[in-house]
Write a structure and sequence with these properties.
The chain is α/β, with parallel strands linked by helices and about 270 residues long. About 35% of the residues lie in helices and about 15% in strands. It has a single domain, classed as Rossmann fold, CATH 3.40.50. The chain contains 9 helices and 8 strands. Helix 7 links the parallel strand 4 and strand 5. Helix 1 packs across helix 2. S-adenosylmethionine binds next to helix 1 and helix 3.
Length: about 270
Amino acid sequence: MTPAAVPGLDTTRPHPARMYDYYLGGKDNFASDREAADEILGRFPETRVIARQNRAFMHRAAAAMAASGIRQFLDLGSGLPTADNLHQVVQRTAPGSRVVYVDNDPIVLVHGRALLADDATTRVITADLREPGEVWEQTERTGLLDLEQPIGLMMVAVLHFVPGDLADLMRAYLDRLAPGSHLALAHGTADGLDADRTRQADSTYQKTSSGLYLRGAREIETLFDGTRLLEPGVVPTWDWRPDPAEARPTLPGGTAFPGVLAGVGLIA
Ligand SMILES: C[S@@+](CC[C@H](N)C(=O)[O-])C[C@H]1O[C@@H](n2cnc3c(N)ncnc32)[C@H](O)[C@@H]1O
């Protein structure tokens, strides 16, 4: 399908989904995305490592949830398909696990459909997570998730694209989840960045469809309110249950900036 044939797709304005795809080395991006992403990479050469480590956190968190018995997942701000995708990770532990992917970039749906065409256990929906009523309605319409059973809710590297106080939004998702559900959340932080660099990141992302709203560790921890944080708590992505076989990443320039903080909470 050509870009012009995708309803709602604006290729002239950079979009975070496609910028992230570019950081990860993917090919599903356009000139405007690459230009904005190159501006970020010029100012923050550590971005590629941070993006890969974020994705690796998502994999470890999903595998941990699958190992604890979760068999259905709702992935808000899922991003463009890229190896490995959530359903591939969890289906390695439990074949048949069901996944609903949600993203507000219409191109995610197009690529998702192409990738998942044969898979009756996954579905991609286009929706804005700031409208939880709409997200729940579309999710229920897929018929894939049973809200009476525990769900793995993924909010990985997405809430820093949403401005303002997120307490009500979090409640609108967490209050619908059955006991035993888990929340995996990762969020960009300005902790460790000086004001100048924070402004530089903000100014590039202001050109995108969403802007960037980095938050501090304390504020990110409050997003887990109503859950019991699992060990090791909210930490830099690479410190969340790291694979012992993997070396801790070194960031270009030796900076100690964590970039993204992450954790998993259990709903009792
Ligand atoms: C940085 S990517 C993260 C992808 C994936 N969760 C991961 O961590 O690998 C952020 C994704 O969130 C999506 N997104 C941003 N704002 C959103 C919103 N309001 N509703 C739904 N998706 C959104 C973007 O389109 C993008 O695909």
